[in-house]
Amino acid sequence: xxxxxxxxxxxxxxxxxxxxxxxxxxxxxxxxxxxxxxxxxxxxxxxxxxxxxxxxxxxxxxxxxxxxxxxxxxxxxxxxxxxxxxxxxxxxxxxxxxxxxxxxxxxxxxxxxxxxxxxxxxxxxxxxxxxxxxxxxxxxxxxxxxxxxxxxxxxxxxxxxxxxxxxxxxxxxxxxxxxxxxxxxxxxxxxxxxxxxxxxxxxxxxxxxxxxxxxxxxxxxxxxxxxxxxxxxxxxxxxxxxxxxxxxxxxxxxxxxxxxxxxxxxxxxxxxxxxxxxxxxxxxxxxxxxxxxxxxxxxxxxxxxxxxxxxxxxxxxxxxxxxxxxxxxxxxxxxxxxxxxxxxxxxxxxxxxxxxxxxxxxxxxxxxxxxxxxxxxxxxxxxxxxxxxxxxxxxxxxxxxxxxxxxxxxxxxxxxxxxxxxxxxxxxxxxxxxxxxxxxxxxxxxxxxxxxxxxxxxxxxxxxxxxxxxxxxxxxxxxxxxxxxxxxxxxxxxxxxxxxxxxxxxxxxxxxxxxxxxxxxxxxxxxxxxxxxxxxxxxxxxxxxxxxxxxxxxxxxxxxxxxxxxxxxxxxxxxxxxxxxxxxxxxxxxxxxxxx
Amino acid sequence: xxxxxxxxxxxxxxxxxxxxxxxxxxxxxxxxxxxxxxxxxxxxxxxxxxxxxxxxxxxxxxxxxxxxxxxxxxxxxxxxxxxxxxxxxxxxxxxxxxxxxxxxxxxxxxxxxxxxxxxxxxxxxxxxxxxxxxxxxxxxxxxxxxxxxxxxxxxxxxxxxxxxxxxxxxxxxxxxxxxxxxxxxxxxxxxxxxxxxxxxxxxxxxxxxxxxxxxxxxxxxxxxxxxxxxxxxxxxxxxxxxxxxxxxxxxxxxxxxxxxxxxxxxxxxxxxxxxxxxxxxxxxxxxxxxxxxxxxxxxxxxxxxxxxxxxxxxxxxxxxxxxxxxxxxxxxxxxxxxxxxxxxxxxxxxxxxxxxxxxxxxxxxxxxxxxxxxxxxxxxxxxxxxxxxxxxxxxxxxxxxxxxxxxxxxxxxxxxxxxxxxxxxxxxxxxxxxxxxxxxxxxxxxxxxxxxxxxxxxxxxxxxxxxxxxxxxxxxxxxxxxxxxxxxxxxxxxxxxxxxxxxxxxxxxxxxxxxxxxxxxxxxxxxxxxxxxxxxxxxxxxxxxxxxxxxxxxxxxxxxxxxxxxxxxxxxxxxxxxxxxxxxxxxxxxxxxxxx
Lengths: 596, 596
Known about the structure:
Distance between the termini of chain A: 44 Å
Protein name (chains A, B): Acyl-CoA dehydrogenase
Largest interface: A-B, 101 and 101 residues
Helix content of chain A: 55-70%
Shape of chain A: globular
Largest sheet of chain A: 8 strands, mixed
Oligomer: homodimer
Number of strands of chain A: 12
CATH architecture of the domain at 7-153 in chain A: Orthogonal Bundle
CATH topology of the domain at 7-153 in chain A: Butyryl-Coa Dehydrogenase, subunit A, domain 1
């Protein structure tokens, strides 16, 4: 199946909802206006559609393979990665000083989307390298930056994140990998890391692992974790490669999906110790890792949008081609293509509405990140940062959960053919399933949303967003026509539900944490639906104003927004009931363990 | 992963909700009381747990394989099928006259559930044979019944249903397979059938295909379809096997799941014509097939319950074993098993509540079928039959759709391990995905629910059910305690939503069919949630009354019912908004084809 990036919608969101023009007015982003955005996105669309998309099925059928400690990636991946590197795609968002293009996150985001729609497994490699770059930019020494960042950005080397161990998944307090200081400033690292994406592969000359480990005297728990840089090949001062380090890939996993992306078990120090270099200060590893993770979590949220878009495109293509049954309204005597049947429409519209809503929310979040970094005003920066941080777990959790549902609908649209692997729809259903799990499960995102993002400021950021939503509701009230009436009704109800959920969570967090956390994922989902629905509401208002310029595009946007209101936002009050419970604790925690 | 049939819940539902005692009072079912039910279900549980469940993973890893027209099933399947046959399991529900046990459907249903939980792929073979038996009982000649039924029932031969062709999936009007009369009472059949479950295999001595085909002068469309019996080996008058017939398996599909179950492409008549025998009268094939399909659709609904139960059991086992993170309420200083975390509880409770609700609804439907067949009173039979027929598309559509969500939650409970195939959770996620597709997609079920089951009688059957729900609501109002208050609130709201949906559908069916059918699947889901929630409400009332007898079981039932109310029934009004739309048509059908 081919993939064609939805450039028009991407640019619409960037311009009309995420305010690229204001970002271009920030210091340092003078060249990052709409024209640049358009040029970059169109080139990304071309590259992803032509080079990466055709390799997506191949990656599923001929996964990465392990033999004797080495991993051979899917045929074609290595050459594609060279093209990716030469095109400068690894550096889009990274600093010019280290060879990047220094573009705003808002422009990088559609590129990431297209990359992941085209080839989710392939895109994971640069996604992890982005994380490593972020960590070094934040906490690396000048020498480390100078030695590693240009190599990452030019695509010579790639990066990994090593958090998980067999006993330490969501709970990093349980990390046992140890790092022993050698007295010369280096450490020797010993331990086993699992689930390491692209922990071993053949697409780059070196692989640089960022590894969570404990030094000998570190305190227990998460406050005793440090971050180390452990290259596969040691790096000489001039940047050339030295000896093979003592980190080895002992196996890769047999997975449900994203099969081209090798998921490695890495063994550190079985032959005397893997040489590692401390990043930043001892015992601050988790803090640095969170910086990487915020970027990575946002990116995984984009993977959700991306796989949903790909599944949607494939389902639409099939629905336009497959002929079956006469229309229910008797408008034709002969069987028609199934896109004419109301339930197929409902499924396609659900897929489309979720995808457009989640895209808009993510791009708007990216813009907040840009303002948080570049706005000249201190208070504005803080406020944008708070909103961005509130949105990251939602972008991650909501986009990925919906992507599973969207991919499942994609299979359903295909009927029996969807269950046959040759069709390709099933690959998206399998691939998407990891997204609500890695980089922090949806529950972990929801805990973050509740603890750090909602309760810590007493609900202030959530309230600020609700106040902005009220302005949109007021604008909807002034618009004519059923689509606007529907959106007004459901966005009003949804934002009230969200407000009550926030109030409940802030009020009960200390007195009844079990009741609050029992509603954590429903709260995340409610916030996602309301905030994405809000973006669809903003979009339909713009579309109405500009409708005459491009009837086809804008009328579709209005209809999709209406669909979002009537079929997705309408679920909000029901979800509220799962959060704001007179009886949350009893309902969810009433059973004793042995009653399960 | 092991499987242990939930015998206690099965028997509870049979006794307290589906009224097995009254079924035992029907003529011919004198021996089919609770004691018989208990003995049969316990034996089914033992056989399924010990013999079939251990083969489930093997079936996924070593699927059925095709070579030279023959299919070799997973090692162990053939021997297990012999045990199945010798245990008399094929005949549980079928007439004593042909070697069956003649037990009520209500007793057969938990057996079917256990069979499918234990091994979904294996269970498909008897499921299809059941369909063939039903068809012959309904429309076969006395000779056909005498020749084939005992062989089916003793497990010597198996049956298949041949509907689908490459161009004819949901739309059977497009069937092209032809049957030419030979003048001697037989026909020669020519054509290609696809997606034929167990269309070829090595577990039985003969395979008897029931095939939809057209005779030369048949009218166009569904009114020109006849049903033929085409055995793989021709059958002599004494029941011994004769010559190989001209039906050949040219390939099997490479599927997302249920891999042990061979899905065959069957070629009829490439070597002169496959000899076939007309079943019943010409051009009434679809009518007969619908009889098979009603039984098969109910059974596929049970597959949904079954895979949900299996996924639940696996997730519970993992959640009780995996240690990760301290409790959010600070009740322990050390990491605990994840079943102590509120969101894991929420996921497990969601899985459990859906499964128990869907089970109860399906068993109650089975009881209606028994009353419809055996009740001495004409009017009562008709009324039970109408309710059974209303419930069949709901049991099929609701149970299978929820099974996909439940299996997906099962993966999520496992975290990263869920994505690794060795864990086994992913198999359920893959296996379940076919259930909302085969034997009629959810949209086909929803169309049936709307057209034949709701509109045809002007909503009378739906209203009759709603009146029964009102009685339960009245009983809830008299009970004390938060669980009953919650259920009262959400069942009241849900039944109002369902009532309004029925009213809308009946009123608008002719004037605005697109608006009605755009809400068809949401209507089915709403009906499923409300009717399953109603069964949970009935269950909690019984549980309250009997609580002192078995605190552990009944308090769990009450808590699960409360969870169903607060987390599932609470969604009903939101779903209503997707059905009863001021603007259904514009929302779903507003886009032109080229806007997708």
